[in-house]
Amino acid sequence: MKIHHIAIICSDYKVSRKFYTEVLGLNIIREVYREERQSYKLDLAIGDHYVIELFSFPDPPPRPSRPESCGLRHLAFSVENVGNKRDELIAKGLTCEDIRIDEYTGKEFFFTQDPDQLPLEFYEM
């Protein structure tokens, strides 16, 4: 029917929580600490649409990102204006790739990374 949510395990919960809420502007639905797992679980939304579960676990292994490895390649967000979003993220201290044009759709997009080097794409609606 549709994708319900995407789960992300982060290496530093405080850093990733701040990134996803303050830098990307996702809204917190709920945050819980699960004592038995020594793990936080943060449910995040774009507007009121639930999209991401952010988890912390003790000592997770690093995610191989370069060279590209099997598994999730990147997470993509739709935006109205790619140039404005890129400028906004650069102003917040992120390194962003140059804007490119999708050769099949003609739409603009660019990539940046979250604190654990998960590639994030911002794609023109």
The neighbouring-strand order within the major sheet is: 1-4-3-2
Total domain units = 2
Order of helices and strands: EHEEEEHEEE
End-to-end CA span: 21 Å
DSSP strand content: 35-45%
The major beta sheet can be summarized as: 4 strands, mixed
Overall spatial form:
globular
In the CATH scheme, what's the topology name of the largest domain?
2,3-Dihydroxybiphenyl 1,2-Dioxygenase, domain 1
Secondary structure tally, helices: 2
Question: Got a strand count?
Answer: 8
CATH architect. name of the largest domain:
Roll
Low-confidence stretches: none
Structural class: alpha/beta
The CATH superfamily of the largest domain turns out to be 2,3-Dihydroxybiphenyl 1,2-Dioxygenase, domain 1
Tell me what the structure shows.
It is built from 2 helices and 8 strands, in the order E-H-E-E-E-E-H-E-E-E. The chain has helices spanning 13-23, 82-91; strands spanning 6-10, 27-34, 39-46, 49-56, 75-79, 100-101, 108-113, 119-124. A hairpin with a 2-residue loop joins strand 3 and strand 4 (49-56). The two termini are 21 Å apart. The model has no long low-confidence stretch (mean pLDDT 92).
